[in-house]
Amino acid sequence: MAIDQGKIQRLWTEQDEERLISTVTRAKMQAMDSGVTAIACVQIRFTREFDWIDSFEQNQLNVDFQVLWHDADQPFGHMLAVGTTVSQMWQDATVLDDIRSYWSSVNKQLVGEDATHVQFFCELAFDPRAPRDDVWSMWPSGLFTLPHLLFRDDEHGTTLLMTVAVTHEIDVQSEVELLSREVQMLCEKKGFKSRVKEAEDRVKVVNPTLTSTDRLVFQRAVADVSEKITQGKFAKVVLARRVVLQRKQSFSMGTALRDLQMRYRSGVLFAVMWKNQIFMGATPERLVQSTNGHIQIDCLAGTTIRGQDEQADRELARNLLESSKDRNEHAHVLNGIVQDVQDIVRNLTFPEIPVIRQLANVQHLYTPVSGDISHESTVLDLVLRLHPTPAVAGLPKRAAMQEIRSQEGMDRGFYAGPLGFMDVKGDGAFNVALRCALIDDQQAVLFAGAGIVSDSNPLAEFAETKWKLLPMQTALEQE
After folding, report:
1. Is there a smaller number of Cβ atoms within 10 Å at the N or the C end of the chain?
2. Which residues does the annotation mark as catalytic?
3. Residue from 458, 457, 433, 459 nearest 446 by CA
4. For domain 215-476, is the CATH number 3.10.20.340?
């Protein structure tokens, strides 16, 4: 089949086209020689304008996987991943070890000078040992993918990285033409109609009997755990609850994402589409970021609300800094982070006193931790050591996790789990999935938690979860 030169000219240059054909041809030759599928990687400068959020919601290519990612704390932190070239799912507790092995094997299949630009997406459940409940039945314990199309912004505009699985039987010209049609479809502006609304054959998993965590049940759990901490069984335990929202019409993902993007000017806005469900949120917490071996970790623990005016805001922040309960909770989290990574991170540094990090509706105690990772380690090794942090689980970790399974009575799924991107060198950035919800058509399940210590007040801890739920509730209420 001949290539439609007119369409290709509108999407990329002749030089880009030549590189694309050459790279796919090289990958085909490698596949013929090795008997193993090769992956062609080509990045181009993309000059066509289109709305990334609209593209995510409309899902013009009808794929099962997409990621929208906007890191407001990075100068160029906007990415849109569409489809998968290769992907792997896991349903067991050894998911992180399996992901490292899979990442290493896929790296060997990459072909092309632009393979260095490849970004893998990884998402892990909070507790891989926990069985998936009805809410999370469609999701695995771990998901690792190489996006088929990856749009990213930089100082010059937008790049598009295309990856293609190539066998010895592939027709090179047909594959290039298919890529052209796919990208063309993404740029087309059609009358807005969400795929979630138009997919009549989708599997319905909305459960009308699903209920939110009962307020009194949560408060009794807080009191029980606090007493156990007083008895010396734990130093800290984080208890979470869920809120179920149901409406007659489908939730508007685009409207919710735009609302979060407008009101939350720091942290990471994310949306992951898997099958027919969307896991989305605006998380303030970076688990770890590695850039050329230099790492940064967020210690975020201790919370209060924002004030009605600047004076009230400053007073609340001062009270938070002076709160022995919140400072103790923060110290537990910081000590846990340091202990978890000190064997593979050199030159660990962090300030002695936390500062205030303000978000739209809450403010936290915050301590940045930095250092240099050992040469033989990757960002995945840090994720393995850090997750779950004391900020989302507790201390000691194993005992806290057992108490969470006993007390919460629900599957957190990917709430409070790590998600992020990594490259072929092992650098990358992972965040903790907080301030989030799982959306399925007309049903949304929201999650929030609070750190319990010896002097925790059940009423205050429940109120803290209400503050944390507010961003997503407000966004989903937008029409």
Report:
1. C
2. 236, 285
3. 433
4. no
Nearest CA among 274, 300, 320 for reference residue 416:
300
Structure tokens at 62: 């009808």
Token pair, residue 407, equals 């007390």
Give Cβ neighbours of residue 15 (< 8 Å, ≥ 6 apart): none
Amino acid letter, residue 125: A
Start-end ranges of CATH 3.60.120.10 in the chain?
215-476
Res. 205 pLDDT band, cuts 50 70 90: very low
CA-to-CA distance for 99 and 380, rounded, in angstroms? 8
* Total length of the chain: 479
- What three-state secondary structure class fits 276? coil
**pLDDT per residue over 47-87, tens digit each?**
887 789 999 999 989 999 999 999 988 877 899 999 999 99
Dist CA 202 CA 205 (whole Å):
9
pLDDT tens sequence across 396-419: 999 999 999 999 999 999 999 999
Alpha helices in 284-378 (DSSP H): 310-322, 324-341
Asked whether residue 12 carries a pLDDT value surpassing 90, the answer given is no
**C-alpha of 234 from chain center:** 29
Contact 62, 196 (CB under 8 A): no
411 neighbors 206 (Cβ within 8 angstroms): no
pTM score, two decimals? 0.90
Tell me the pLDDT tens digit for each residue of 251-281: 999 999 999 998 888 889 999 999 889 999 9
Q: How far is CA 350 from CA 61, 106, 206, 335, in A?
A: 45, 36, 45, 11
Structure tokens at 408: 């919460």
